[in-house]
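Backbone-to-sequence.
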């Protein structure tokens, strides 16, 4: 196993770049074969990645089962994170932050993962029908029972983080963050730093936009980006023109665009841990190598210029998904009509 730089995450020390496992089973068209997914997971561990991030929702449980079959024999080598609240109810995706639903989802995850303990369990989204104190309380009881080791939150605002942290120390907050998506900079990033909470950046290459993976909106069936306004039509064409400048900067620096995005994230604070996902081992190796890249002030300044406020056109989520997002909006952020 290769040694990577590490960063603190609650009681754990994890590799500065983790692995988001979602797209091995979910969200971006037809997933890879189980054999290819297993090979990628094992290669990640070989490269020194020590944070694997999954969720009950991903592939309607298939992602957790993939991890169980692929790498649980190497359990001592990684910190395992999963999520509850978003789950499958009566065969469909649903949101339920009640303590009863959290307990059921957790038990299902433990069974699928073939374990009796998950290191870090996130509340995947805020269920506004349930006080955050009640949802966190369910995870406190799970921790006391030995089923989980630490508590996390996903896509939640600074105010919600403060309320949750008052009930029990929060180990990590996860939100979308990249040079193209700056919502955490409104309040969450600083709140996490002040409270000693790790900030885990998902979609750190903007769902492929900053990794050369999006050149048009001809996605395959069941690709999540088909529902996202900024990834479609004229808005995408506008955004690709912005991204061309980012790609040119990466080329001048002699690194891949994805590496530029990840190195930028690592520069945002010692509490920031990006978790890029990929289906290709070559891209995995490229991502992990970004942990050793340092950007100078000129490069950082150029990224700020490229992604000045308002540079990216289109809403981050469709209206239905945005309704479950608690993270603060940017000033004048474009939203999709319900």
């Amino acid at each position: 196993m290769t040694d990577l730089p590490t960063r603190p995450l609650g009681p754990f020390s994890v590799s500065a770049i983790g692995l988001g496992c979602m797209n091995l089973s979910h969200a971006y068209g037809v997933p890879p074969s189980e054999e290819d997914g297993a090979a990628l997971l094992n290669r990640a561990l070989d490269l020194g990645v020590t944070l694997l991030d999954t969720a009950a929702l991903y592939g309607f449980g298939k992602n957790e089962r993939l991890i169980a079959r692929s790498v649980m024999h190497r359990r001592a080598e990684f910190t395992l994170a999963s999520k509850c609240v978003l789950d499958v109810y009566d065969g469909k995706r649903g949101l339920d932050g009640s303590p009863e639903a959290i307990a059921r989802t957790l038990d299902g995850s433990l069974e699928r993962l073939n374990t009796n303990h998950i290191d870090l369990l996130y509340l995947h989204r805020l269920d506004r029908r349930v006080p955050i104190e009640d949802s966190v309380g369910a995870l406190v009881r799970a921790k006391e029972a030995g089923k989980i080791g630490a508590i996390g939150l996903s896509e939640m605002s600074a105010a919600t983080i403060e309320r949750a942290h008052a009930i029990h120390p929060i180990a990590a907050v996860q939100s979308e963050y990249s040079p193209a998506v700056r919502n955490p900079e409104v309040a969450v990033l600083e709140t996490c730093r002040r409270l000693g909470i790790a900030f885990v950046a998902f979609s750190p290459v903007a769902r492929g936009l900053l990794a050369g993976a999006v050149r048009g909106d001809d996605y395959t069936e069941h690709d999540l980006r088909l529902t996202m306004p900024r990834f479609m039509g004229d808005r995408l064409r506008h955004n690709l023109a912005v991204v061309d400048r980012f790609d040119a900067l990466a080329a001048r620096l002699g690194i891949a665009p994805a590496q530029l995005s990840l190195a930028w994230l690592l520069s945002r604070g010692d509490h920031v841990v990006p978790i890029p996902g990929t289906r290709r081992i070559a891209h995995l190796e490229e991502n992990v190598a970004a942990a050793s890249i340092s950007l100078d002030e000129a490069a950082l300044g150029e990224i700020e210029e490229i992604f000045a406020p308002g540079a990216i056109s289109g809403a981050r989520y469709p209206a239905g998904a945005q309704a479950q997002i608690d993270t603060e909006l940017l000033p004048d952020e474009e939203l999709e009509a319900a």
